[in-house]
Amino acid sequence: MNSATQAIGLHGGAGSVEALRDLPVDGPVRGTVIIAHPHPLYGGTMHNKVVQTLARAFVQCGWQAVRFNFRGVGASAGSHDGGPGEVADMRAVIDQVVPEGPVALAGFSFGAYVTSHVAQALHLQRSVEKLVLVGTAASRFSVAPVPPDWHDRTLVIHGEQDDTVALSSVMDWARPQSLPVTVIPGVAHFFHGQLPLLRSLVVRHLQA
Fold first, then answer.
1. CATH code, 5-207
2. Nearest to 157 by CA among 187, 118, 120
């Protein structure tokens, strides 16, 4: 953690939820982004480098970023639920951290799948300012479509050479929606060596 990062304790359906809040150093806070991490059974936590990169991008643009551990990860209570419980966890975090005001959602890999379902559930309840899905696990899970009126505020990023989630599966998910996908050439699932570019693309989207 850096000096602008705070540990916060929250509650979900399975009990306590471990979370971190990253704050902008100066200036007014534009809103709050909730960031979901990759698959818990394959080492995914809120400390994942892509998750941290997403947090840094949002903080750079004046957002406070909240990343949290799904149930059964780190100090979060419970055990992995394969999706529904994790969706409930993310919604509980949103309800507690940003019950009103500007909110954005972001997720990486399994976290992008979870985020898609949270976005779908929130669509008729409140507005989401920005939606960022990275390495979306479309080959492994049933990713929810993005509401059409949110397409212009959505950024989908995928590595051309993703060895965990084939780019073709993400295109198959995006094609029926006519949802654009930003493809980074030569990049695999964890964006090794290209995290600065990932951050730059997210910042560009947030500033658009």
1. 3.40.50.1820
2. 187
